[in-house]
């Protein structure tokens, strides 16, 4: 699968100076593309993220709000530092990994108090550990971050995945997840592995619940691969 680097041309200032195109990864990376009503298999390459872990209901958890209030300032410091070096980009959408000891509390009973999560913002491949450390320091200097000690910079490799686009409230995801997990994945000769992954293309503070767009992703592996481990 070919992935565009997202650079489609250039822009010009009023003075005539040529500026590099601002990269929008939602438009250039296949992993940010999905259609409602279509579940597909894709290969997701390794990507690096700002990450913060936590547990509990995201609607009521202070830890969840603190995570977002730490992730975004650091992400924007990274963006502005990169722009100053000639590489501008749109901060990618919020993403989350979700899991529970009993996944039924996530896909069926929706008992959010028992959920665990990792909230994430992707960082471009050219961002380094040193860039990350500088961004945390700069964000902390501007305004005390709620939980700077919890943020980390890590690469995630999911590989083969299935995903689809859900349109509507988050609590209405159970039906499409059941189809994905119990019908589509087995029919493809696959089994689930890794953590449920969501990508939030809409801001719930600005978009009506029925219009929210969320990519639902599940890493998978061939059933044969599991069988081979027992031989």
Protein architecture, described:
The protein has helices at residues 25-28, 62-84, 104-107, 129-142, 174-187, 223-228; strands at residues 10-12, 18-20, 40-44, 47-55, 95-99, 116-123, 152-156, 159-167, 190-192, 196-200, 213-222. The chain is an alpha+beta fold and 231 residues long. The strands form two sheets. Strands 3, 4, 5, 6, 7, 8, 9, 10 and 11 form a nine-stranded antiparallel beta sheet that branches. A two-stranded antiparallel sheet has the order 1-2. It starts with 9 loop residues before the first strand and ends with a helix. The model is unreliable at 1-10 (pLDDT under 50).
SSE blueprint and pairings:
Layout: E1 10-12, E2 18-20, H1 25-28, E3 40-44, E4 47-55, H2 62-84, E5 95-99, H3 104-107, E6 116-123, H4 129-142, E7 152-156, E8 159-167, H5 174-187, E9 190-192, E10 196-200, E11 213-222, H6 223-228
Antiparallel strand pairs: 1-2, 3-8, 4-6, 4-7, 5-6, 5-10, 8-11, 9-11, 10-11
Helix pairs in contact: 2-4
Relevant terms:
single chain, 231 residues, alpha+beta, nine-stranded antiparallel sheet, two-stranded antiparallel sheet, 28% strand
């Amino acid at each position: 699968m070919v992935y565009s680097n997202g650079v489609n041309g250039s822009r010009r200032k009023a003075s005539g100076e040529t500026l590099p195109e601002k990269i929008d990864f939602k438009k250039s990376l296949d992993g940010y593309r999905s259609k409602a009503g279509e579940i597909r298999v894709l290969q997701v390459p390794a990507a690096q993220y700002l990450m913060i872990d936590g547990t509990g209901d995201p609607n009521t958890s202070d830890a969840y709000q603190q995570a977002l209030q730490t992730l975004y300032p650091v992400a924007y410091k990274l963006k502005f530092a990169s722009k100053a070096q000639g590489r501008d980009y749109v901060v990618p959408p919020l993403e989350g990994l979700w899991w529970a000891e009993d996944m039924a509390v996530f896909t069926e009973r929706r008992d959010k108090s028992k959920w665990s999560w990792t909230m994430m913002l992707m960082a471009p491949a050219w961002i380094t550990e040193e860039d990350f450390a500088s961004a945390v320091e700069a964000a902390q200097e501007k305004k005390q971050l709620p939980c700077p000690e919890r943020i980390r910079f890590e690469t995630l490799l999911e590989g083969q995945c299935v995903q689809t686009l859900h349109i509507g409230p988050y609590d209405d995801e159970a039906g499409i997840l059941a189809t994905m997990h119990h019908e589509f994945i087995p029919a493809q000769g696959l089994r689930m592995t890794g953590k449920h992954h969501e990508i939030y293309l809409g801001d719930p503070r600005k978009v009506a619940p029925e219009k929210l767009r969320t990519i639902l992703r599940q890493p998978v592996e061939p059933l044969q691969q599991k069988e081979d481990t027992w031989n």
